[in-house]
## 1
Amino acid sequence: MKRGELHRMIRVDQAGEFGATRIYEGQLAVMGDRGPHSAEIRHMAEQEEGHRARFDELLAKRGVRPTALHPFWSAAGYALGAGTALLGPEAAMACTAAVEEEIDKHYSEQLDRLAETGTEPELAAMIAEFREDERAHRDAALANGAEKAPAYPLLSGAIRLGCKIAIKVSERV
Ligand SMILES: [Fe+2]
Ligand SMILES: [Fe+2]
């Protein structure tokens, strides 16, 4: 795999994991510790912190330029988390289900690409490990009533579209 492609991969993943930590921070800021799903969200937030820390390390180790949109993803992630939490606990879960669905797809595409090129086995193992966590987050969100959120199809569709755009842009910018 060419250096440019590898760097884009690491850049977008670090941006995504950072964005995920901001989503959960936003949700917890609104819900506090007494929300019906606060413990669940705290657990997911801790895992996202771990993912982010490992991509931060990799970014530094490989000399990858971080996304220039860091401040924007910080604000957008936080606003998405806080905004959905304000709509209610089910909307917060719908947000997680939608985001993790897209991340699962994104990581699966990266794993296919890494397998195809037969390079970077360490990165592939890390992505495969994180993908399991993201799938567990999505499943937990669905089990906690994500689909009962008001206007679920619309909300979910909008969030998934936002994620797709964020992924495309963060690979390059
Ligand atoms: Fe993650
Ligand atoms: Fe996640």
## 2
Amino acid sequence: MTIAPITLHQPRRLAVGAGTVGGVGAWAADAASILVIATPITAGFAERLKLSGRITVFDAIPGEPDIRTLGAALEAARRCKPDLIVGLGGGSVLDVAKLVAALWDSGQTLTDVAGPNRVAGRRTRLAQVATTAGTGSEAGIRSLITDPDKGNKIAVESPHMIADFAVLDPELTYSVPPAVTAATGVDAMAHCVEAFTSRRAHPMIDGFARMGFRLVGKYLARAVRDGADTEAREGLMLASYYGGICLGPVNTAAGHAIAYPLGTRLRLPHGLANAIIFPHVLAFNQPVAADKTAEVASALGLGAGLSKTELLNTARDFCSSLGIEMSLAAHGARTNDLPLYASEAHANRRLMDNNPIDMSIEDVLGVYKAAF
Ligand SMILES: [Fe+2]
């Protein structure tokens, strides 16, 4: 079998470890004007960057950033004319920071750059400081922004959106609550597992995926139990970063496609939606990805030689034992809504076509019913 060539973009510099957030200031000692993009909560970490120079904090980033949010952030940048932009937050913040760095001083608009490889260039330096472990946005070159009129997400992808400096400091994730830690940790693992078993899987990305799901197997329960467990938090930040690398050239598959309607229609947080769906797709794909699925099961401590049913049950127990409510009904889903979810998920060919085995609309509906 020939292996399709891939191209990987990674941050120019990566710092990993407790206290590394303090290195941003020294790295950017020559920056005269700095724009920090954050949420009202993560803005509280801005001091820890140890920045000098003129600092502007833009903290109006909601959970799901839309075009208006981006417009306001671009306005803030045009006022302060930064030579450094720092994204300080979770995936939403980091996605906005990428776009602001690429667009604030260019003639291009969001519409101009939507899609792959349409950003003309970037002059402003970009540091990405993650405060959650889930999306792995700091690792990559993609941003998702909601279009409230159309109700969908605009994806921008460009090598010009890669970070000059990415920071994974576990101390910034101590205060993430156990429920969010659990769901986002499973989401990070799902990025790795879906890329690992994808039709477009690649041996090099498989290596990152393995490191990622093994770290989740080793550390997620510990971080849920004790949020200040530095070693576990650091392991999860790495897992999230590796998941981010998996998202680049290979991306996710049916699991994320099936989780999307739970976000757009049922308004479940992205991590939670993916955690609920994860065991079902893992088991569905088992027949065509037996060896790789067995590797995942072993890394998560689910056992060896599992039947499809045993795999589904043990994977669901893995998530439940982290405190994740795995029933769609408990989250307010109604049986009547499931066919709509199924047709929307099935129509997401961008991700569905990556799945190692084709899923019919009935198969997808079967997943929702089983998760109900
Ligand atoms: Fe995800």
## 3
Amino acid sequence: MKPKILIIYKSSTGFTQKYAVLLAKRLNCTAVDLKHIKSVSLSDFDTIIFGTRAHANSIDGLKKFRKTLHRYRGTRPDILFVTGAASDAEKEAIDRLWKNNLTIDELAHLPHFYLPAGLCYEKMSFTDKIMMKGLAAMLKSKKDKTKKDFELEKRISSSFDISSEKYIEPIITYISQDK
Ligand SMILES: Cc1cc2nc3c(=O)[nH]c(=O)nc-3n(C[C@H](O)[C@H](O)[C@H](O)COP(=O)(O)O)c2cc1C
């Protein structure tokens, strides 16, 4: 029998939701907003995929999600995907994200995927806009800026979308091999 998969996502400006919906279509399963998690019976599913965003070098909502999940099964989702403004070429930053946020057990046993997405100032919360303004001001006033600083300054100056359906392929491949 095919495993019953559930995708739970936390999305503030829509990128993670978009990826969750794309994955749900490909995997023929349901994607549910974390806000509505109480309406689903988690114990009915064999595989739980959690999708969220990178937020100031942390994985948004992961700590809380571990606790929620623990009430039903295990302590970690079966698959994790994280969206962000970094491109997939920024291997060091992505690696740091995993090392700083995943436990040793999760690093070894929780399949985790980074999905490039972008930034959307139009849908961003007030607090997030303030945080981005702070980062922009810090970069602007920084002395001896590196090439990376200049690139980041330019990149965060306006909304952009680098999301693509192709980035879900590694997750699809992983699931189809995990039988
Ligand atoms: C305050 C703030 C901090 C962010 N920090 C990071 C980060 O550390 N790394 C990254 O790649 N993207 C970062 N981003 C970009 C978001 O992760 C990206 O826009 C994400 O796809 C948003 O997902 P959502 O649309 O589902 O909310 C940040 C965005 C904001 C607003």
